[in-house]
Automatic annotation (TrEMBL):
PROSITE patterns: DAO
Statement: the UniProt record of this protein carries the keyword Oxidoreductase: yes
Protein known as: D-amino acid oxidase-like protein
Residues involved in FAD binding: 44-45
Gene3D superfamilies in alphabetical order: D-Amino Acid Oxidase, subunit A, domain 2, NAD(P)-binding Rossmann-like Domain
Length: 362
């Protein structure tokens, strides 16, 4: 039975640990600096909205294609997981189309003929009569919104149900994880789901990883079942517009920003005001037309998305004599790619276990 240590307790680490534990024969320990219930800007997962808005280009869409059916199933069959169905509305501004989508989220989401039209349920292009002023085009499809404050602890519970153990630790070098299995045995495999901290972790020190600062406002006001996002806004290329209401009384997320290379963990009051103004303009039902003053604020938040130049890293290598499988660099799509990426980790772990068994027979 391989002894596996998963480094990181964000959505990527927890999902990977769960799938590993469900596979018979794996002995899994999750080791992390932060755990669900913590709020720290470097621990990105609790700050996410989170919803499903396909971000990848078609050639790199495997992770989201594989994850969507599972998130849809959880919303329909497992209400205690904290997901509910919402309609996503993606709006492409005329000025952004004209300049080739140079704003913060210039990715597959806003393509004029997106690959996900064949994947997401109830996809439809919006007729001109339904487009707000200044919009070139738009689409709608069935999506889900995830209450991260419920979903992350639910993942922990599912992991525990399948025998996963948890430890808090701050590591300077990835090789330290080899001694942290709850069994006391040396780890055979380390899964590196350290997120943004991969740029600082000894043995990894990935210089391609950097933060994309996201600032949000969480309010008690309720939005309709439609989650809108636009391809940009007039407040700057690193500011974006989205509104999503979390399941099970989780409040409504107003966003946001996508500021690359910014490590500032403190909410900026000027940005917060712009976020709230944009939200009530696009979603007047939030305050019944009464403006920003009628928003009932729960808290302001900042999360640092773990972006990686060149995209997510999911591959295996040997570090200090121990096999390491990397799973980090998900930027802003960690939730909606979580199961697809975890499946790939399992494939790589199986390759390592098979190789080890073959070599042991020689």
């Amino acid at each position: 039975m391989p002894t596996i240590v998963v480094l990181g307790a964000g959505v990527s680490g927890l999902t990977t640990a769960l799938l590993l534990a469900k596979q018979k024969g794996n002995v899994v320990t999750v080791v992390a600096k932060h755990m669900p219930g913590d709020y720290d800007a470097e621990y990105t997962s609790p700050w996410a909205g989170a919803n499903v808005l396909p971000m990848a280009l078609e050639h790199d869409s495997r992770w989201e294609r594989r994850t969507w059916p599972e998130l849809r199933r959880l919303a329909a069959e497992v209400p205690e997981a904290g997901l509910h169905v919402q309609t996503a509305r993606v709006l492409r501004r005329e000025k952004d189309v004209a300049k080739g989508f140079k704003a913060a989220l210039a990715d597959g989401l806003f393509q004029l003929s997106p690959w996900y039209r064949e994947v997401m349920d109830n996809f439809r292009e919006l007729p001109a009569s339904e487009l707000p002023k200044g919009m070139h085009s738009g689409c709608e499809f069935t999506s889900v919104c995830i209450n991260t404050a419920i979903y992350l602890p639910w993942l922990v519970g599912q992991c525990a149900k399948h025998g996963v153990h948890f430890k808090r630790a701050v590591l300077k070098h990835i090789s330290e994880a080899t001694t942290l299995s709850h069994t006391g045995r040396r780890a055979d495999i380390i899964v590196n789901a350290s997120g943004l901290l991969a740029c600082r972790l000894g043995g990894v020190m990935d210089t391609k990883v950097y933060p994309a600062r996201g600032q949000i406002v969480l309010v008690r006001n309720e939005a309709k079942s439609v989650m809108p996002t636009t391809s940009g806004c007039d407040d700057g290329d690193d500011e974006i517009v989205y509104v999503m209401q979390r399941a099970l009384g989780g409040g409504t997320i107003l966003g946001g920003t996508y500021t690359k290379g910014n490590w500032d963990a403190n909410p900026d009051p000027n940005i917060a005001m712009r976020i709230m103004r944009r939200a009530v303009e696009t979603h007047p039902e939030l305050t019944g037309g009464k403006g920003v003053e009628a928003l009932d604020i729960i808290r302001h938040g900042v999360g640092l998305r773990p972006v990686r130049e060149g995209g997510v890293r999911i591959e295996k290598e040997v570090i200090g004599g121990t096999w390491v499988v990397h799973n980090y660099g998900h930027a802003g799509w960690g939730y909606q790619g979580s199961y697809g990426c975890a499946e790939r980790v399992l494939e790589l772990v199986d390759e390592i276990v098979g190789k080890t068994k073959r070599e042991a027979k020689l």
